[in-house]
Amino acid sequence: MGEAENIGPGLSRTLVVDLSAGSYFTACKPGMTGTGIGQAPFTVTPSSAADAATNAPGEADLVARIDTANTNYASYVKDQIGQLVTGTAAFAAAYTAGDDNTARGLYAATRAHWERVETVAESFGDLDPKLDLREADLEEGQDWTGWHAIEKDLWPADAEAGFAAYPAAERARLAGLLVADTATLNEKVQPLTFTLAQQTNGAIGLLDEVASGKVTGEEEVWSHTDLWDFQANVDGARVLYAGVRDVLVQKDAALAATLDTRFAALQTLLDTQRVGDGFVLYTDLSTGTVKGLADQVNALAEPLGRLTAALVL
Amino acid sequence: MKGGDSRKRKNGPFPRAEGAETPLSREEGDGQADAGANASATLPAVGAPAEAPRGISRRGLFGLAGAGVAGVGLGIAADRGVQALAAAGAPAAGSTVYPFYQEHQAGIVTPAQDRLHFAAFDLAPGATRADLISLLQDWTTAAAALTAGHDIGDFGAVGGSYDAPPEDTGEAFGLPPAGLTITVGFGPTLFTTSAGVDRFGIASARPDALAELPHFPGDQLDDARSGGDLCIQACADDPQVAVHAIRNLSRIAFGRAAIRWSQLGFGRTSSTSTSQATPRNLFGFKDGTANVKAEQPAVVDEQVWVGAGDGPAWLAGGSYLVARRIRMTIETWDRTALREQETVFGRTKGDGAPLSGGTEFTEPDFAATGKDGAPLIDRASHMRLAHPAQNNGVQLLRRGYNFVDGNDDLGRLEAGLFFISYQRRPSQFTTVQLALARHDAMNEYVRHVGSALFAVPPGAARGSYLGAALFA
Hints:
The structure holds two protein chains of two kinds. By secondary structure, chain A is mainly α. Chain A is built from twelve helices and four strands; from the N terminus they run E-E-H-H-H-H-H-H-H-H-H-H-E-E-H-H. Chain A has helices at 49-54, 58-96, 100-116, 118-121, 127-132, 147-154, 168-189, 196-214, 226-251, 253-271, 287-304, 307-311; strands at residues 22-28, 37-44, 274-275, 278-279. A two-stranded antiparallel ribbon of chain A has the order 1-2. A two-stranded antiparallel sheet of chain A has the order 3-4. Classes of the chains: A mainly alpha, B alpha+beta. The interface between A and B is large, with 48 and 35 residues.
C-alpha cells in the first residue's frame, strides 16, 4: 500500500497513503527484511460519499492511465531531442561557416527543444555543463563550451571590453563539440522511462527554471532571448501536466482546476510579448512587465508544487 | 491558495483532531478554517497580553487519527514555542501572545513591539471579488495561527507529505510567538483603480476619506514605494517572527495578490503604552513622548478608532493607517552642532525634556522665552509644529520604526524612519504633516520618499474574517 524508507534512529517521517475501506496494519521492517516488528492494525472507512465516488474508478484504471502518461512522455522527450539534433546541425553549420545572421536566427528556436525537456537533459550530470553552462557558472580554468559560449561570440555587444571574436578554429571546435555532445544526449534519452514522480517533479522543476533563470534574464545574457526559453519551459511543464491531468482530476479536482486556470493565464500573459515567430527581447521589457510575468509564474508554481504529493501516494 | 488547503484538507488523510488548547489560547486562532460565516460572535474586550504557559503544547493535537501512519512517528506539526517555553523559571522571553480575534485589530494600541515587517500588496490583474474574499479569509486563518505561535496549515513546517513543499516555510520553527500582531488594511485602489474601475463591486463602500493623500511640499515620492491595494503590518519582538509572517502571508497570496513594496523596521520609535520607555529615532532623539497611549481610552476613542457615525458602517471600530518612508540624511545631521539638533527637535537630546524646562513628560511651554525674547522652543521646531496644542488638538497614534536598508550609491546609509500613524480620520495626519512640511526645521535632514494610506477594518470575530462587513 505504501512505505517510507531510510528512516534513521530517532527520526520520524509522515507516510500518507490513499486507501480503500478495509482492514490494514502498519509495521516496521528494519533492513527491509522479515515480517516486520510492532504490527498495529487499523481500519479505514470512507471519509465521505464524495470521496468514495472519487475513488470509484479503481486502481487498475489509474495504473493504466499512468502507464500511458509515462509512455507518451518518453516519446515526447525523444521527439524533442531528435529535433534538437537536427536544429543543432543546421545551427553549427551556419556558425562554422561564419553565417552569423543565420546562426543568430536559429539560436533561440533550436534551444527551445532543449528547454522543453530541460529537466531530463540536465539529469546527465556531465552533459549539461558541456552544453548549457553560463559564463557566470564557470570554475576557474574550466573549458567553456556549449550554447552560451557560442552565444557570446554571436552577440558580443554586451561583452567585456577587449573581448575578441573567436577565431575560425575555435568556432569549429565549439560547433563540433556541440553537435557531438547533442548526439550523445540523443543516445542517452532513447532507453529512458519515467515514473509518475519523475514526470510531476519534472513539471515543477521546469517552472523553477523559469522562476530562477528566465524571468530574471540570467539565462541569455548576450542574446536576451530569455522569453523563448521561458515559453519552452512552460511548454514542457504543460506537456507533463497534461499527461497526468486525468489522474489528477480524479485525485484532486480542485488542484486540477487551479492549474488549468493558472497555465492558461500565464500563456495569455506570455502571448502579449510575442513578436512575429518570437518574443520581445528581455532587455526591452519594462520592470512592470517583468514583475507581472514573475507574479504569474509564482501563481502557477505554488500550486504546481503540490502536484507530486497529490498524485504519488 | 495555501490557506485554501486547510479547508480542503479537512477531509484529507489526516482528519484534524481538536483539543489540547490551553485556557489562555482559547480566544486565539488555531488555524481552523471556519472563515466565511458572517459571525456575530461575542467579541472579547481588548485584553492585556497573555503570557503563554510553560511546557504545554499550544498547538492542537492532530494527526493522531491519521490511519496511514506507520511506526515512523506521527504527523504532528511541531509546536514552535515548546522549546522556548520549556525553559524553567520565569515565562520565557518572547512568550507574549496577543489575542487575534478582538473588537479592534491588534497591532494598533498594542504596546509597540521591537520589530516590523510591513508589506503592501496589489491584487492580481485578473483577480475577482471571490479571489479577494478568499484571500482575506485565508489571511485571517493564517494570521490567527501565526499570532498564536503556530505554524500555518494543517501540517506546518515539517509534518506534511514528504513529496510536497511544506505548508509553512519553517524559519520560525522553535521560536515563541514573540508578541506577533498582524494588522491588515485596504488602500484606496482596492475600491477604485486609478483608472476608475470598480474591480470588486465595492466602490460605493469606499469612505470619502480614503483617497490619495495630498502632495505635501518637499515630497519626493517613489511610486514603487507608495500606495497599494492591501497592506499587512507584522510586528513582533523577534525580527524572524515578523518576516516569517509576511513571507507566509505573501506565499498564500500568490496568484491573487503580490507584494508591491515592503519595508523592514529594526527598532520601534514610538511607545504606545505608558509601560514602555520612550525609544530613540536615528537622529538620536527620544521619539513619541507625547504619543497617544493605550492607557488613555478616551483619547484613543476620540483620536484613533473610526466612530459608528463617521462613514460606512463596515469601518466602524477600525482606523486609518498612514505609512511614510522618511529617508534621513544622517551623515549631514551627524555633523550638526548639538545646539542646532536640540533646536530642531525642541527637546533636549539626553532626557527628551522640552526646551522650556522640566523632564521628558513635562508639558512644553510654548510661550516661554529666553533673554533675547525668542521662544525657548523654536517656532520651527518639530515638537512645536507637531504638538496637539498647535493643531487644534489633533493627535496621531504613532507606531513608526527605524530602518537601515544598506547604503546608497554614494556610500550613505539608506536609513530613516518608516513612519506609521493610526488615526480616526486621515485629515488628522494631513493637518500635522502640512504644518511640518511647510515649516519644520527638520526638513533639511529628511525626505519623504514613500507614502500610503489604508483603511484598517475592525477586528474579526471568531468564525468570520477581516473586512467581512465590507462584503456583506
